[in-house]
Design goal:
Chain A is mainly α and 291 residues long. Chain A is built from 13 helices and 2 strands, in the order H-E-E-H-H-H-H-H-H-H-H-H-H-H-H. The radius of gyration of chain B is 24 Å and the shape is globular. Classes of the chains: A mainly alpha (291), B mainly alpha (290). Chain A: One of its GO terms (biological process) is transmembrane transport.
Chain lengths: 291, 290
């Protein structure tokens, strides 16, 4: 009896600190944002209950839909850019090759760097006067292609997406390489003996064998790209003319520049459900569990 | 996605029948990939040593002479000393506490059977799905109500809360794999529950502990959103936040921006080259369930 009670106390004491911090600083904010989303509040004076007004206003704001559209572009660029490039390079690296370790080290490097450093660096690269890209184009005699990459709303989203892809290719590269190394050598040898070309072996043996990993990478890519905020905040802050606005940025600017805490909370709620529903749908469609 | 890729592969496959892909082609593609990956960083580091005029005229070459003015002006105007100190303090404290509390929780979740075990575990893991940005506004309000905006310890709380899920996930799955008789023989020897944790489970979990320490450290070191919303006192800013506002103020001083970035990169790149294996392991493990 005594021992059992001690055990219960020990378990409670052991789990409680983590649970309390997690509840207060991760779960409570989510619940609070539900509450605030029904209020009109400038953050200082008294709150006023407005029912669904914030949500109605939100759904009528074309800028909100614009930011959601851009968010979807980020998701698409990540899935269609990062995964195929990473897989292609991983397949090339998955053989007896000199300098494998160096390619791996360089490949993963951007993943370790802070998003802020990457954003500022790429802003300099895209700079219209002295940026690397325009300078390269000028050197190659292609001056007419030089653009104000981040300052021109026709190009800004594309420029941002290139950086997004660049940042995380290495992560998927390493994930794919690890999976490829688990494909048993004998299977590939056998296929080779049967006269299958490398292309055929890759398509009909290697890729099916790492299919599970590819699915995981796609899910990861989607949930990761929904988190895009820092990168765009630093590079363009959603501009020019909202051409690179994403939902989190829209929320940030509506809340802190216009002091609309109730409205901002309503956007938070939408982001929360949008992310969960998207991840849930994708995991279901791809036949995996969400948790 | 598959279609472009497929096409590429098909062309390659068709080619191969006639001329099997030669190693040089593979190396060529890999080298291009490596250049695209590394050159932006190298370009920035090299140009941080050039004077403004040289940057404008000779962007691709090595600097004619090393100019350190950029570094001096970046260090002074961006307040890098303070930023580094703040980042190191917050990073170490948050990482230490997250791993300590997380290890403790994981021990009970992995080595004990009790009624709410599965529920508590799932509840923690759910945290990995919470989009952090959805919490920025309520987090700001919460911290303001708690009087915790702009203090040296502000960021530690959300950092712990949001990294506990992945920490608990990695540690629990590692600790679950230990055989049951470890505790049994320890209990025979009269060890208490906490003693078993401290002198048996914790030392045995060393590889997983290394993974979560590195993971937490890198996440905390690079974190920007919470810092942006919760801190605006320049003396309390972390490195990413300070760099972002520095770049915002000195938009035309490219040299100083590059020097500031280079200085902030040195520790993380050194750390990466030193502990590459562990870092890659940690970040991919973190990603696969993050």
């Amino acid at each position: 009896m005594h021992a059992a009670r001690n055990r219960t106390i020990a378990i409670t004491v052991g789990i409680l600190p983590a649970l309390i911090i997690y509840l207060i600083f991760a779960i409570l904010p989510i619940l609070q944002s539900f509450y605030y989303s029904f209020m009109e509040w400038d953050g200082f004076s008294d709150m006023r209950y407005v029912g669904l007004a914030n949500f109605i206003e939100l759904f009528q704001d074309p800028l909100f839909w614009n930011s959601m559209k851009n968010n979807i572009y980020v998701v698409l660029a990540s899935v269609l850019g990062q995964v195929p490039i990473a897989l292609f390079i991983a397949l090339l690296l998955n053989r007896k090759i000199k300098g494998l370790k160096i390619f791996r080290t360089i490949g993963f490097l951007p993943v370790v760097l802070s998003t802020v450093v990457i954003s500022i660096t790429w802003s300099l690269i895209y700079n219209s006067e002295n940026g690397l890209i325009n300078e390269l184009l000028r050197t190659a005699g292609l001056d007419f292609l030089a653009q104000n990459w981040l300052g021109d709303s026709n190009w800004s989203m594309i420029a941002v997406l290139v950086t997004v892809i660049w940042q995380f290719v290495g992560l998927y590269l390493i994930i794919f390489l690890a999976a490829l190394q688990n494909v048993p050598e004998e299977v590939l040898e056998a296929a080779k003996m049967d006269g299958a070309s490398e292309w055929k072996t890759t398509w009909s043996i290697t890729i099916p064998m790492i299919w599970d990993t590819i699915i995981v990478a796609v899910i990861l890519c989607i949930s990761g790209s929904l988190k895009t905020f820092d990168l765009i905040y630093v590079m363009t802050n959603g501009g020019p003319a909202h051409s690179t606005d994403v939902m989190a940025l829209y929320m940030f600017n509506e809340t802190f520049s216009k002091l609309q805490y109730g409205y901002g909370s309503a956007v938070s709620v939408i982001i929360f459900f949008f992310s969960l529903i998207l991840i849930y749908t994708v995991t279901k469609l791809l036949g995996r569990k969400m948790l | 996605m598959q279609s472009t890729y497929e096409k590429l592969e098909q062309q390659k496959g068709a080619l191969r029948k006639k001329f099997p892909i030669k190693k040089p082609v593979i190396y060529f593609i890999l080298i291009i990939f490596a250049i695209v990956n590394a050159y932006p960083i190298i370009w920035m580091v090299i140009n941080s040593f050039k004077s403004e005029q040289e940057f404008a005229t000779n962007q691709f070459g090595l600097p004619q002479e090393l100019v350190f003015e950029n570094y001096i002006s970046a260090w002074n105007t961006a307040n890098l000393g303070t930023l580094f100190t703040n980042s190191i303090f917050i990073c170490l404290t948050a990482t230490f506490l997250t791993v300590l509390i997380g290890a403790f929780t994981s021990y009970f979740l992995s080595r004990f059977t009790f009624k709410l075990n599965k529920v508590v575990y799932t509840f923690f893991i759910f945290g990995m799905l919470i989009p952090i940005h959805a919490t920025l506004v309520p987090m700001f309000i919460l911290m303001r109500n708690l009087g915790l905006l702009n203090t040296p310890v502000t960021l530690i709380f959300p950092y712990i809360a949001f990294h506990l899920p992945i920490t608990i996930f990695i540690l629990t799955s590692f600790m679950k794999a230990f055989p049951k008789d470890i505790e049994e023989s320890a209990i025979m020897d009269g060890c208490g529950i906490f003693r078993i944790f401290w002198s048996i489970i914790l030392p045995m979990s060393r590889p997983a502990l290394a993974t979560v320490i590195i993971l937490n450290f890198i996440y905390n070191w690079n974190e920007f959103s919470f810092a942006l919303v919760l801190i605006n006192d320049p003396n309390l800013q972390t490195l990413p936040l300070g760099l972002a506002s520095f770049a915002g103020q000195f938009t035309t001083n490219y040299g100083a921006q590059m020097a500031g970035l280079t200085m902030s990169l040195i520790p993380i790149i050194a750390f990466y080259l030193l502990l590459e294996k562990e870092i890659v392991k940690g970040m991919t493990a973190g990603a696969v369930k993050g």
